[in-house]
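Researcher: Sequence of 4-hydroxy-3-methylbut-2-enyl diphosphate reductase follows. Predict its structure.
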Amino acid sequence: MNAPFPSPAESAPASCEAASTKAPLRLFIAAPRGFCAGVDRAIEIVERAIEKYGPPVYVRHEIVHNRFVVDGLKAKGAIFVEELDEVPDGVPVIFSAHGVPKSVPAAATERGLDWLDATCPLVSKVHRQAERQIADGRHILFIGHAGHPEVIGTFGQVPEGGMTLVETVEDVAALDFPADAELAYLSQTTLSVDDTAAIIAAIQARYPKVAAPKAEDICYATSNRQAAVKRVAPDCQLMFVIGAPNSSNSLRLAEVAQRSGACAQLIQRASDIDPAWLEGVDTVGLTAGASAPESLVNEVIARLKELRDVSQQEFVTATETISFKLPKQLTT
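Model: Prediction complete. C-alpha cells:
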C-alpha cells in the first residue's frame, strides 16, 4: 500500500461500514487500463535486443516502472543499472521509456557502445518541442515532478538554465520573470490532467504571452486512464490501482480515485491485498497504471474471487489503437 493514500478503514464512507462482509462484491473494472503503446514498445525493444545480441543486454534505469515487468526481463537476460558507467565495454545498452539527457547517448557513442533508445515517442515529442522553444529564444516553464526520470531527461535536452521546474500553482506565483518575458510551457506526460490544467491556467493568467505546445503534452494513455477512473470511482467504496510506488501515472490514478470519492489502494500485485481492506465494502473498482500488464489485473480479479463472491462489469470510456515503430536496428 502506498503511504499517501488512507486505508479503507480510515476513509470509507458510512455506508461502507454498514455493509455485510459476506455480501457479493461488485467489481467495476476501468478501461482503458494497463500497458500503453510506449510501454509495449519499450518492453519489445528489450526482448528483441536480447534475441538479436544474446544476453546480457544492459538497460539504463528501469525500462518501465513495474517490478513484475523488470523481473521478467531480468529472467530473460536483461541487466538493469542506474548509470552508464556501470555498463561494461562491448555490450549493448538500452535507454528507458522515460527518456535520458542528451549527454547519455553521447557518452555511449564516445565509448563505442551499441545503444538503443526506448524513449516513448510522446516523450521524445516533448524533447523536440523544448529544443524548438529554446532555439526561438524562450525560457521554458516545465510542469513536472522533481527527480522523476522524465523530468531529468527533458531538462537534459536543453542548455543548463533554459528551464524552470513548476510543480504547483504556488510555484507559478513565486516566479520572478517579468510579465512580458519570452516564455513557453511544457509538461511531463504522466501528470494529473486536472492539476496540470490548473497550473497552466495560472501560468497563462500571469504571463499572457506564454507560448503553448502545439498539442497536449500529457499523453493519450494518461488522459484516457484518468478519465476511466473518473467514470468508475464515484460508484466505488474502494479502488485498487495496480502500479509501482515510483510510477507517476499510477500515483495520479490513485489521486483521481480519491478525489472521485473512493478509498484508493495502490498495489503492485494481488499478494498485496489485505483481506481486511474489504471488510464492510461491497463495491470495488480496479484499474492499472500504464506500465502494469493485464496479467496482474487478472491475478487481482482471481484473488478477489477467492475472498468473496464477485460480480464484475467493465466500463470502457475509450478505445486505443495507437502503436509505435521499433528502432531500425531491430527491424533490419
